[in-house]
Write a sequence for this structure.
């Protein structure tokens, strides 16, 4: 209504303006009776010109009116569409029961968060990250330092603007139960992780992040691997992390000739892993006071979700000294094979790792493999069979077979390290072996720990 009134007013203004011009012309003419006939002709000509101009203005006014109506209808339709979309998005999702995810671009920035404390050897970690990093823009490096260790701080500062250095402000001791006094370090690590991830996702507002610790060395294709696997994490709600680590990644237990092999695993590996901001939204309110990695492995947090992990690890640890005082390092961790060949993962089709496709092919390979006893494997018998399967049925049989074959035998909430649906894949004396439960497996038993 307001627009129509404006159009009418504009027409009146034009009419008055042209008539004023005519009057002005008449008033300013010299008074000469001999010029009456010429004056009449000019008035008539001026009136005709005015009539033509008014017709043109009328056409313009009609166009304005027409396009205004079209614009109004367009705006109304857009408002109606937004209303419909808002109403649709408000409906509860029935596609999956897992937490809903926000929309994140496959080209999102993936910062690398280095969790540091008092190891000046963080230089080894940072040098490799910077050496292999393909893009400073896509993969900014953020070093989050706890402990207030001055020598380590100087090492980190020496990299200048190649990295970002943030410092945990709370360095106080944490009150712990009397029987946990020797675990003070684990409490501080959990507090540091909470602070560092909150900085990344809350303060810097990144949509995803790769987490490494200051005693990890990365492989040449570390960034390539995460860049290629990231879209899988976005599209498959049954995944909750991408990990660079194989818990059974000793050199003699992996197929180093095929570093492109990737798997799903129900065990949270850590030691170089990618998570989404959505997962932090879920975990932050209930983040534990200590032992955060084992807490992640509990059913309440995992919610039947899996991670992607490689055949050959894309990280290795060189930090023997730490809160665990070298536990497992001399017997196990220092023997992990670090991949040394660049695999162009971004040029490969990784869709086979999506849950339905993976289970169809992987389970068929496992349960079509001939079954052998541990003793036959140890005796190097039936080499002609190639890939084989060793079946376990109880917690004790799993631990006995795992120990006999060199596989890590500990279980967390019933889940074996690197296992998927209870199946652990590895090499034994150069042949592929699947340590697997029966084919009618129905789920993990949390009492197997």
């Amino acid at each position: 209504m307001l627009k129509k009134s404006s159009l009418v007013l504009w027409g009146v203004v034009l009419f008055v303006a042209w008539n004023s011009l005519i009057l002005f012309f008449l008033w300013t003419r010299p008074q000469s009776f001999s010029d009456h006939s010429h004056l009449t002709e000019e008035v008539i000509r001026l009136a005709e010109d005015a009539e033509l101009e008014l017709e043109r203005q009328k056409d313009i006014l009609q166009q304005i009116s027409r396009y205004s109506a079209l614009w109004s209808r367009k705006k109304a339709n857009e408002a109606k569409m937004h209303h419909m979309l808002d109403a649709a998005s408000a409906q509860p999702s029935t596609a999956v029961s897992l937490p809903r995810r926000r929309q994140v671009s496959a080209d999102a920035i993936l910062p690398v968060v280095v969790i540091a404390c008092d190891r000046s050897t963080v230089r080894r970690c940072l040098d490799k990250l910077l050496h292999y990093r393909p893009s400073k823009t896509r993969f900014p490096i953020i070093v989050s330092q706890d402990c207030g260790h001055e020598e380590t701080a100087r090492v980190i500062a020496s990299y200048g603007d190649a990295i970002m250095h943030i410092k945990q402000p709370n360095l106080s001791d944490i009150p712990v139960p009397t029987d946990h006094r020797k675990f003070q370090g684990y409490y501080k690590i959990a507090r540091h992780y909470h602070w560092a991830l909150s900085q990344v996702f809350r303060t810097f507002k990144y949509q995803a992040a790769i987490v490494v610790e200051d005693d990890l060395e990365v492989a040449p294709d570390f960034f390539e691997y995460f860049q290629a696997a990231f879209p899988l994490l976005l599209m498959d709600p049954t995944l909750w992390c991408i990990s660079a680590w194989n818990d059974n990644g000793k050199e003699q237990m992996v197929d180093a000739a095929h570093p492109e092999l990737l798997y799903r695993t129900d065990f949270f590996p850590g030691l170089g892993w990618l998570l989404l901001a959505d997962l932090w939204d879920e975990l932050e309110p209930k983040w534990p006071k200590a032992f955060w990695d084992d807490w992640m492995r509990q059913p309440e947090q995992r919610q039947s979700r899996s991670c992607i992990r490689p055949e050959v690890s894309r990280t290795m640890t060189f930090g023997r000294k730490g809160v665990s005082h070298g536990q497992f390092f001399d017997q196990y961790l220092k023997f992990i094979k670090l991949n040394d060949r660049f695999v162009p993962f971004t040029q490969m089709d990784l869709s086979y790792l999506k849950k339905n496709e993976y289970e169809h092919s992987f389970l068929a390979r496992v349960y079509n493999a001939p079954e052998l006893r541990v003793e036959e494997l140890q005796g190097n018998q039936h080499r002609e069979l190639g890939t084989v399967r060793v079946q376990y049925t109880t917690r004790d049989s799993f631990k006995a077979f795992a120990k006999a074959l060199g596989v890590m035998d500990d279980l967390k909430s019933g889940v074996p390290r690197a296992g998927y649906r209870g199946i652990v894949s590895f090499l034994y004396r150069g042949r592929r072996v699947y340590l697997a439960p029966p084919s009618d497996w129905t789920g993990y038993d949390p009492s197997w720990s």
Remarks:
- The chain has a mean pLDDT of 85.
- The longest strand covers residues 208-213.
- The chain has twelve helices and 15 strands.
